[in-house]
Design brief:
alpha+beta; 5-stranded mixed beta sheet; 3-stranded antiparallel beta sheet; 46% helix; 24% strand
Length: 214
């Protein structure tokens, strides 16, 4: 073999090895594991959404969680998953399974770019109104005592927001919430306490939906 073809072959092999390493490293950064209670569609879709939300916050910045399309994006998280599999959780774990998933890096980056554009477009409206006067759905609420505890926690965690019930059903309650904080900042303050988390599926008629865990 002539020297030049040999050097070219060596260069191709080295380059291919480097590209393979880069791809593996990139894919590892878009992998996630979420504990689940079973292998149902509902649990799997919930895990997809939780993992995508954490991945977007880590790779694109926490501010993307305030983008208008963020909640809808979480609802379609499964479309961004390249592969997934279930593993048995270690002995003593709270959940029996762990869902291991791999997201498509290009698709996640594209989504992050879209969310950043939505944030930029919403900035004038956000600047014009820095206060919250919103309808917030909170569930599950099963008793009067549970409602009282939730309302006390909400007022404490949201810097004394004014909140009162406007509607309710067997599962939850609709609150009219007024706060000097803008809605994204208010939701972030509430989620700092593990008792409140933004629900994946918004409740009809609500500006925001929260899941309450006593």
């Amino acid at each position: 073999m002539h020297l030049r073809p040999l050097l070219l072959l060596i260069l191709v092999v080295i380059t291919a090895g480097m590209l393979s390493t880069v791809v593996r490293a990139q894919q590892a950064g878009y992998a996630a594991k979420v504990p689940v209670s079973d292998t149902s569609d509902a649990q799997r879709n919930h895990a997809f959404a939780v993992a995508l939300g954490a991945l977007l916050a880590r790779t694109a910045g926490q501010q993307v969680t305030a983008a208008p399309g963020f909640t809808d994006a979480l609802g379609n998280a499964g479309n961004l998953v390249q592969s997934y599999q279930y593993e048995r959780a270690p002995a003593g774990s709270a959940q029996p399974f762990v869902l291991v998933m791999q997201f498509d890096p290009a698709a996640v980056k594209l989504l992050a770019g879209t969310l950043h554009k939505q944030l930029a477009a919403a900035e004038p409206a956000t600047a014009a109104s820095s206060e919250t006067n919103a309808r917030v759905w909170v569930a599950p609420i099963r008793s009067a005592m549970g409602f009282a505890r939730m309302l006390a926690a909400l007022r404490a965690d949201s810097q004394d927001a004014d909140a009162g019930p406007v509607a309710a059903d067997a599962n939850g309650v609709m609150l009219r919430v007024r706060s000097p904080l803008a809605l994204p900042a208010l939701l972030a303050a509430l989620q700092a306490d593990s008792h409140f988390q933004v629900a994946i599926s918004p409740h009809p008629g609500a500006d925001a939906s929260l899941r309450w865990t006593p």
